[in-house]
Amino acid sequence: MAKTLDGLGRKLAALGIAADPRLVTVAGRVEELLELAAYVMLVQALVYAARRGRGGRPVSVPPPAGPVPFGSPRPHRR
């Protein structure tokens, strides 16, 4: 999707469509944010793989504090 947004004004101009400059600016910013998110996810995957590779337990979110609503299972604790 980021590749589609990259150079949106230029791509639309090739089709004979004049894009609003604000739209082109927003599309460029969204494209940059998507690229940043891809790099963040890559780093997260590498950290996760490194932790798993050395025998460590994966990072998990602790169970919520407070009473458990009726009918919902309690998380299993080791």
From TrEMBL:
Q: Where is this region: Disordered?
A: 54-78
Spans of biased composition, class Pro residues?
A: 60-72
Q: What is this protein called?
A: Uncharacterized protein
Give the source lineage, highest ranks first: Bacteria, Pseudomonadati, Pseudomonadota, Alphaproteobacteria, Rhodobacterales
